[in-house]
Structures are given as C-alpha cells and as structure tokens.
Amino acid sequence: MLYATPALDSADQQVLAESGEIRRDLRHQLAEPHRWDGQLRRNLEARAVQGSNSIEGYHATLEDVESVVAGEVPLEASAQVSRELVGYRQALSYIQVLGCTRHFRYEATLLHALNFMMIGHHTGKAPGTPRPGCVFIRNGATGETVYEGPDAERVPALMDELVTWLNEGDLDAHVYVRAAMAHLNLVKIHPWRDGNARGSRALQTLVLARDGVLSPQFSSIEEWLGVSENTVDYYRVLGDVGGREWSPHRDTHSWVRFCLRAHHMQAQAVRQRLREAADVWCRLDERIEAEGLHSRCVSALYQVFVSRRLRRATYQSDEVLSPGQATRDLRELAKRGWLAPYGETKGRFYAPGPLMMEIRADFERRREPLRDPYRRG
Fold first, then answer.
1. 234 within 8 A of 258, measured Cβ to Cβ
2. 194 assigned to a ligand binding site
3. DSSP 8-state secondary structure symbol assigned to residue 5
4. Among 47, 80, 172, 293, which residue is least crowded by beta carbons within 10 Å?
5. What integer pLDDT is reported at residue 173 of this predicted model?
6. Is 196 annotated as a binding residue?
7. CB atoms < 10 A from the CB of 66, how many?
8. How would residue 377 be classed by pLDDT, with cut points 50, 70 and 90?
9. How far apart, in whole angstroms, are the C-alpha atoms of residue 302 and residue 306?
10. Which of 135, 79, 144, 66 is closest to 313 using CA atoms?
11. What angle in degrees, to the nearest 10, is found between the helix axes of 253-290 and 10-31?
12. Is 198 assigned to a binding site?
C-alpha cells in the first residue's frame, strides 16, 4: 500500500486553475524563439540544480552552478560539491531527454539509474542499488530519529508498486498532484543508502516533464524548495504527513497543498523572468547599438543580468566566436563601463560594471513580490 492521493478542496482547485493560466501564458511566450532563450534555460536549470543540492547541504553560488551546467569547471565550489552538482545535473539532463521520448514506461531500474547518476562517485554507498539494511533519518541538530524507512526486505515490492502506480494509477489526477505523490512515496520508501531526497525531487520533475506542457526548466519547483524558509517548511510537512515510520494510511492533503503553492509561486517567478528577459534585452540592444558595438555584445550583458558572472568561454560558446573575438568584445565592454574584470588567466571572469549595475538596480526596484495563492484578500 502506498500513500494515497487526496481529494482536493475548492481552494486547491482555484490554485490549480490559476497555475494553469500561468502555464498557458508561459507556453505561449516560449512558442516563439528568442535570442535569450538558451541563456534563460541554462539559468533556470542551474537554479534547480542549486536548489535541490542546497537542501542537502551542498552549497554553491549560482554562478558556479551555471558553470557546471555549461560544462565548465566552477571557480569557487569545492571538489566534493562540484561532484554533487555534476551528478545531479547529469540526472536532470537525462530527465529532459525522457520528457520528450515517444516510447516510455517507468521502471524501477530507471529510478535506480537516476540515483547512480547522482551519487555514483560515492562508491561506498552502493549507488543505484536498493539499500541492504534499515535506514534512519535523524535531526542534524538534536540527533533525534525523525523517520525510519520500511524494512529493506519490503523495498523491492514497494518500488514495484510505485512503478505500477506511476504507469497506471490516478491518471485522471492533475499532473502537479501526481508529481507530488510520486515524490512523497519515493522519499518515504527511501530505497537507497544516499540520494533519496534528491532522487524523489528528480522523480517529481520527471513526472512533470512527461506531461509535455513545459520543459523541466520551466516546470520544476526545485529552485523554490531550495529557498531557506521553504526548505524548513518542506521538511516540516514531509514529517507531518509521512510520520516517523512508513504510514501510508496518513492524510496527504497538506503535502499536496504545499506542492501546489510551490508550483504557483515558482511559475510566477518564471513568468516574471521571461518578461524581464524581453524588456532588458531590448533596452540593452538599444544602448549597444547607440554605442556602435556589435549586437552580439547584448548576449554578454544579459548573462551578467541573470547572474553575476560571465566567463570568456561561456560567451565564446554562446555566440560561436573565436577566442580572440570573445576577448576583444569583453575588453571593450569593460573599457566602456558595462563589465568589470576580475582575476587572471583561467580564473578570469567579468561581473556587472557600473552601467550594468544601474540597469540591474532599476529592474530590481520594479520587481513585484510573489503572491501566495492561498492567501485571499
């Protein structure tokens, strides 16, 4: 028996309806290609990787995570954190592929493979294989046991039941609800020695990806979950709903509501970024044209708008330039006050210069706070 999908109330239905409107708006905006699409997708993917790993205590700057997503070596993250980031990014990349493949079925071996992609470098933890014994989740501050997973002998059967449900169960439920229940059941089965929470969040993203309405970068809630106050609520609601041991009879409504709120608020943030992307790109394009610079330079400036660092290799790859062309562009932008260079040789990067800081500050002043969809009036 798995944790069961709950009935939704009128407030939940209203939140789902509003989220659906935002999703349709996003899909409409994404239907037409734009110059900034690739950079925005990379930034959103990096935010998801950063969020999911920060929950587990693997902290890295957004700029370092973007370097990992771009296939570069991060400048500040430790070797250990870098390995975690690379592993999780590899799993998310595979999920993006699975999201659009025509012939697909959920299998236990697929879930084990995702776990191996994430933590394969932890060879002592038998990555990608069911745990051989019991598992306890403890409060890091007090040492108190807050959850004990089901006996190891039950794990294969529970995984088979979960896979059957993923393929056949509650197919009439909204995808946000099914994704939330997939997450809850996998994390409570706790089938592996490590990587269970990350694997459960990845499965939630996979269920969303298979829905096909939006790509994972635009539908994942992992960034939202990684915000510190949301992470606290995330663990609290998982504990309240799941109990201290495998208890599939418990009411799961508060967990699903937590996820519906997360989807709504993350969608608001993504829509805001899409609108900002169009506005800031147009403003930068006008300024760059007025200064007589090549239009490709807007790409470099947009990168330091969505994050705080640009490396020559990234700009060179984005605009398909030679090393010399990329270096000359970035030096000219720095000379004119658009960028500020830091470091030397392989460690060199460009941050926003005075002119770019003014534009960033202007957009930050105009940015509206996100709205909690369950708070009316």
1. yes
2. yes
3. P
4. 172
5. 97
6. yes
7. 28
8. low
9. 6
10. 66
11. 30
12. yes
- As a whole number of angstroms, the distance between CA 138 and CA 282 comes to 51
Confidence band for 217, pLDDT divided at 50, 70 and 90: confident
The verdict on whether residue 230 carries a ligand-binding annotation is no
- What distance in Å separates the CA atoms of residue 70 and residue 64, rounded to the nearest whole number? 10
145 forms bridges with which residues in the sheet?
138
The sign of the dihedral angle between the CA atoms of 300, 319, 62, 22 is positive
Amino acid in the structure at residue 287:
R
Which amino acid makes up residue 84?
Answer: E
Task: Copy the structure tokens of residue 126.
Answer: 């038998």
Q: Is position 195 annotated in a ligand binding site? A: yes
DSSP notation for 208-253:
HHHH-SS-HHHH--HHHHTSHHHHHHHHHHHHHHH-SB--TTS--H
**Of residues 244, 223, 264, the one with CA closest to residue 135:** 244
Q: Helix, strand, coil proportions of the chain in percent (round to 5)?
A: 65, 5, 30
Which positions are catalytic? 190
pLDDT of residue 344: 87
> Phi-psi bin for 365: left (phi > 0), alpha (psi -120 to 50), beta?
alpha
Q: Give the span between the Cα atoms of 56 and 60, in whole angstroms.
A: 12
Phi-psi region of 130 (alpha: psi -120 to 50; beta: other; left: phi over 0): beta
Instruction: Give the residue-averaged pLDDT of 194-214.
Output: 92
Tell me which residue of 89, 142, 141 sits closest to 117, measured CA to CA: 89
Backbone angles phi, psi at 70, to 5 degrees: -85, 0
* Residue showing tokens 């990845």: 202
Q: Which domains does the chain have, with CATH numbers?
A: 36-271 (1.10.3290.10), 273-366 (1.10.10.10)
**Residue entry with tokens 């392989």:** 346
The residues that bridge with 241 in the sheet, in sequence order, are none
